[in-house]
Every structure is written in structure tokens, then in C-alpha cells.
Hints:
homodimer; 326 residues; mainly alpha; Farnesyl Diphosphate Synthase; 1% strand; Polyprenyl_synt_CS (chains A, B); transferase (chains A, B)
Amino acid sequence: MVTPILHQAVTRFDDRLRPMVAHHFGWPSSDLPTATTSGKMVRATLTVLTGECFTSDAEAISRVTAAGAAVEMIHNFSLIHDDVMDGDKERRGRPAVWHEYGIPAAILTGDLLLAQAPLMLDGPWAADPRATRLLAEAVARLAAGQMADLSLEGRPEASPDEALAVAADKTGALLACACELGALLAGASEEATRRFSRFGLRLGLAFQIADDILGIWGDPRRTGKPVGSDLRSRKGSFPVTAALASDTPEAAELARFYADEGPVGEDEARRATDLVTRAGGWTRAVREIERFEMLARQELSSVPGLPVDRVAALLSLTNYLSNRNH
Amino acid sequence: MVTPILHQAVTRFDDRLRPMVAHHFGWPSSDLPTATTSGKMVRATLTVLTGECFTSDAEAISRVTAAGAAVEMIHNFSLIHDDVMDGDKERRGRPAVWHEYGIPAAILTGDLLLAQAPLMLDGPWAADPRATRLLAEAVARLAAGQMADLSLEGRPEASPDEALAVAADKTGALLACACELGALLAGASEEATRRFSRFGLRLGLAFQIADDILGIWGDPRRTGKPVGSDLRSRKGSFPVTAALASDTPEAAELARFYADEGPVGEDEARRATDLVTRAGGWTRAVREIERFEMLARQELSSVPGLPVDRVAALLSLTNYLSNRNH
């Protein structure tokens, strides 16, 4: 439902930046895009499924779907800029925009998507100002979270709670926004809207920790990233902060590794991965995912009268996001 | 009128990015800002003066002033990102955000301002969706124009018309938007709104060429930039394209200079400046400024019944922008 809306919006972009946007989404030709190239569309799916929990009115669903496209535009703006900041050369199996077109082009492409996103909330109807505000607030939290995330790099004294607070901003805010928009624009009650926002936030935390696990223990053949890739850049993700906070000899050794600055080879990355495991980083991360998954489910179950099939779809998405292996 | 609104909005920003925004605007402490540090506020001035041409209703003026603040936020987002792309280390006599806080922080600070700008259109009233759209369209043109501007560097075959088209996007679009928003939100007629949009566009072109002149012939003691600074980076600004398009021996020599790639010393910069002058680049640029100034004035004079003092203020601003020497 969302891909054609996004694709349609992108066809109206200026010639000078449309190629970069099309490259990012994997739409190299003017053909209609296939669903597989444009990313998982997790956020738009959340918006639409949430909306469908509260309405089946065609116009309301159109508003909800358009909001899902707005959220995806924000998500993709942030991916393009994040790849510049992190120096990640690949995205979805293709060269990152900056790697293909240069850093200035990637900054401008992200800017364009960010500026156009609120327009997606508009349609034959006028945009709901509350929706515009929610979207802008999510970007503000996302940017602040990304800033905090960058400053966690190589800071062994960061606590697990700090890492969670950063994940809540960097990842949780936009998932919360995705759900909140779906509920708001489908006419849900204030209470139900708040519940869905919290569902999204908690799901976002489970999702981010699952991502952190992949960044350390992910199978290179499935993730497309080197062994222990987050450790190589000395990221302060949740499993690492949990390991460092443990009162173990491995924590002390890991702290020394994190205090170092030179480049990290494969053997050293393996050793560091092993230290995080032995200091309980993996166990604690998995437990935290389960906790947030459960909290997310609780939010859903506390809203009475939701259609069973939509809730089942949301729960199966929750389960998928918390147990990814690539 | 606009600075307190901007300052108020910034005080609500997240701790992790507010220092960068405050640094950019020159508001290092939590004191109320002084007018001198935050830039010239040309765009907001245009919005407010335009609005005052059509209404004196207090609520309408509040909307107009808030829109002026939105335009300034967009302008400042673009300065922060442009400085990253151009590698310019200084802005308004202070270190550029990227130079003080690093490139990731500067990208995120710009993102934050860009995302927050449409919210400024909101108030006790709901944002006018046409205003939101105008602002987003201006950003799209600005980004495409900046992309084109970067690709003009070291392209001696670019024509003067191409350089003008780039200037219309990069600089004209936001000035046109500033004026159009003022007219629209003050309830001007469609015809008058269109005239003011064109006034802003033409003023923007005059302004940009005046800026191009400063970039080549500006007095280093007044501009704070080295002699011939735009020639050192082999920018394809209007005066250069005009010189290259002239059928003179100097044009051929200048083309060879532009085809080179190595770093440019002070003597070479002086020689290149001299070539642009002798090939008629300066004369043609000054003539073009005069032409756009006149066209801008024509737009204003074709709107009947404007208050004389506001028009006088707009014309004096026009004159100031076309004849800057720093």
C-alpha cells in the first residue's frame, strides 16, 4: 500500500536529486518498484496495522497510509544521513548514497526527504496539525538520539540505562510515532493512542537491542557485515554497556579494549566478542528484549475491543522484529 | 520581532543539540539574544514587511512573523549544512558548527532546524497547509540548487544562464518563499501574492550576483575571506561563466585555469581575478544586478495601493542587498 505512494511522491522530485533517492530505494528505472528493494517498511506497516485496529473507513485508511509513507520518508532520510556519519558504505546490499554520489549529495538527498515528509500527511484532506507535530518531534528525538549514540562510542563508563535511553530516542521515537499516527488518524481514543505510542516505543527498544545483538554476534554471511562489527567501531551498544557494568574480570578486560583507539583486527574483534559474551552481555540483552516484547504486548492487550486479526499481525511483527537474524 | 520567537523555540530543543544551535546563532548563554549576532534576518524582514503591506491585523501579523521565523530556521539549516559541504570553517565571525562540534553534530543540528521549521507556522492558530507546502517546496529547490551549484565547480562549459538558473534555486527560491508567505498569510490577492513571490525571486538573483562579486573582488578585510576566494575553489559563479562566455583571449586563458586542478596560490588567484575582470565578468555581473533590481521593483510597483512606507522599506532593503560590500 505504501510503496506506490512513496514512489509517486519521488517521481515529482527534481531531476538533480531524484536519481539519488531512486538509488537509495532501489528503484533504478522508472518502472513501478517491487516491494523487495525498498526495505522492510516496518514503520509504515505499524502505522497501517494500527490504523486498521480502529477504522475501516476508506478515507481514514488513506490518511493513515499516507502517514505511513511520511514515516518511511523520515526513516529513509535518517538512514542516508546516518550512513554519512557512520561511514557505512553499504545499505540494503547496494552502495550507500554517499558512497555512490558523494557526501554533499547524500546530505542534500536526506534534506530533501526530510523536508518532503510532512507533505505526505496532506492529501485531498488537509494535514492534521497534531500529526505534523508528532512527526517533527520524532525527528527531534531521533537527531538527539543519534547525537548521543555517536558520543557513546568509546565511552566505557556509559551505563546500560544510558544505552537504553539513547535507543529509546534513536529507534523508539520513530516507531512510537508510527503507531501513534496510525491511532490518531484512525480516530482512536486518547487513551488508546497513548497505549499504541508506548507499544511502538517498547517494540522499538526490543528491535534496537536485537539489532545490537546482530552488530556483535551476527553471522557475517547473513548480515553482510564483518564479525563483531559494532565492536570494531567500539560502539557503546546495550550488550556492551551491560557487559561492562558486570562485576567480572572480563568486564575489566573489555574496558581496556574500549579505552584503546587503534584499528581492530578480526582476531581482536573475536576476542572482544567473546569477552562481551562471557561478561553476560548476550544473556542480559536477550532478557531485555523479552522484557520489552512483553511490555509491548501488555500495551496492546490493555486496549479493549481490538480486531483479533490485526492484533495477531502486530504481535507477529513484534516477534519478527525481536528475533531477526539478518 | 523574529529573534525572540526563534530564541524561544530553541530553548525548547533537546540538551544534546541545543548548544550547537545556540552557537550557530551566537546565543552562547541563556540571556536574551542581541539582534546583532543572529545574522541579518533578511528573509524574515522580507516576510514581515510584505505582510505589513497587506494587513495591520494583530493576529495576521503574528502569523506572518512566525512564518518569518520559519523561513529563518530553513535559512540557518541550509547554512549549517552548506558549511559542511563547502568545508567553510567560519560563519558570522565564529567557527562553523561542523568546525566546532564535528561533521555529524552539524548534520544533525541542521536536520533538527529543518524538521522544526514547519512547526513555526503553527500557533494558537492551525498552520495554513499552503504555507507548509510553500516552505517544503522552497527547501526542495534550495537542495537541488545547492546540488547543481556543487556540480558547477570546475565546469568551464557552464553558461551564464545555467549559473542564473542555479542561483534562482539556491538563493531565489527561499527569498521568493519569504515574500510569498508574507503576502499569503496577510490575505493578499492571488495576483499580489504572485507578484511578491516574483519580487523575492528577482531580489534573490540580484543578491546572489552581488554575493558572487564579493566572492571574487571582495576586500578581504571586509569579507573575512581570502582574495579571489571563489576562484580558488574554482566556483562556477555568474561572473565567471559570463567571462568564460566572452569571445576574448582572457576567456581562453581563464578556461585553462579552470581546467586545472591543483591548489591555487595568492598570485594565481589575483591573476585569475584580473582575467575575469578583463573578460567583462565584473561589468556583466553589475549590469545583471541592475536588471534584476529593476525587475524586482517593477513587480512591487505593479501592485496597486501598497502603503508607501512599507514599499520604501522594501526598496531600501533591495538596494542594500544589491550593493553589499561585506
